[in-house]
Amino acid sequence: xxxxxxxxxxxxxxxxxxxxxxxxxxxxxxxxxxxxxxxxxxxxxxxxxxxxxxxxxxxxxxxxxxxxxxxxxxxxxxxxxxxxxxxxxxxxxxxxxxxxxxxxxxxxxxxxxxxxxxxxxxxxxxxxxxxxxxxxxxxxxxxxxxxxxxxxxxxxxxxxxxxxxxxxxxxxxxxxxxxxxxxxxxx
Length: 187
Fold this sequence. Notes:
Layout lengths: L1 E2 L2 E2 L1 E6 L6 E7 L4 H14 L8 E4 L8 H10 L2 E4 L9 H11 L11 H17 L16 H9 L33
């Protein structure tokens, strides 16, 4: 994002299963310390249990730094990285950033960091609560089946055979699917 004549960086942590942005930060620069801070705070805020999270990151200096690697290890977070020299290896984050940058109200530049943060606050609220994502059956991360349940409760006569069911969201999503663990019970 362009800030006056200076660059600002937007850090985003996106849950690829629900498409919900769970953490973000606008900063004057990219740094390992800022990435470490955001990841740590987001894991606490989201109550991420140890050994239950995989973070897929680009190969920027922040995400490949020792402070971030040590933090992820301390939190029991598995880390995967984009392929070398491939800038668009994460389709989920690429889609999120494209949605941000192609919004009709996205300015050519932000004149203060506060202006950039205010824009991102409004965008993230819209993205999480109003934007309909094709990857999760055209729902917002905040709604899903609740809409159909309400319609059925209001007018059950409209649904002759059974209550409506929204197309199922995927059970699991991966950027780099982990290798299957060998079954130790086979003889």
